[in-house]
Amino acid sequence: MNETIREQSSEEVWKTLEQLVSGKGSIYSNSNMDREIKIINISIYKQGKQQNIAVADIVAKVFDKGYLISEKRYRVSLIYHFKPLIQFDYSSMPKNPTGFIVDKYSLSEIASIKALDKTYKKVERPHSKIEYKKQNPTNPQNNPANMPNNKEEQ
């Protein structure tokens, strides 16, 4: 994955991302944390003949051990170009088949959505790394027969 990102980034963008990922407390280095990114809108602009600009609005959710701890809206702006075919290196094709390169980017927080109460923010996700503990059958709260809507005969 890192090699793919490096192949699609200018040196300046790659160094910034490397520092972000390796920084102390980075969510990228914490195996208990997962991110869910949803793209809301993408706009592509062209400024003159030489500069391509793309803007994307996203929602980023951060989960720690399956619990939603943060939900924010961001605007991502990119200046990008495509490598000319003459400079296209076919050994990098599997990682960057289109020759797409991000020259510069910025990330702006648009809104911070209040975190849910811990009781309600457990989110089941199919690709989650959550490990569930087995319920204790001796605990009356975990016994299905003690549930108010249980139609099971006793």
TrEMBL record:
Domain of life: Bacteria
Cell compartments where the protein resides: Membrane
Record keywords: Membrane, Transmembrane, Transmembrane helix
Listed Basic and acidic residues bias regions: 121-134
Domain Bacterial virulence protein VirB8: 3-109
One GO cellular component term noted in the UniProt record for this chain: membrane
Main location as per UniProt: membrane
A Pfam family it matches: VirB8
Region named Disordered: 121-154
UniProt name for this protein: Putative VirB8 protein
SUPFAM superfamilies given in the database record: NTF2-like (SSF54427)
Biased amino acid composition, Low complexity: 136-154
Key word Transmembrane present: yes
Membrane topology value: Single-pass membrane protein
Signal sequence extent: none
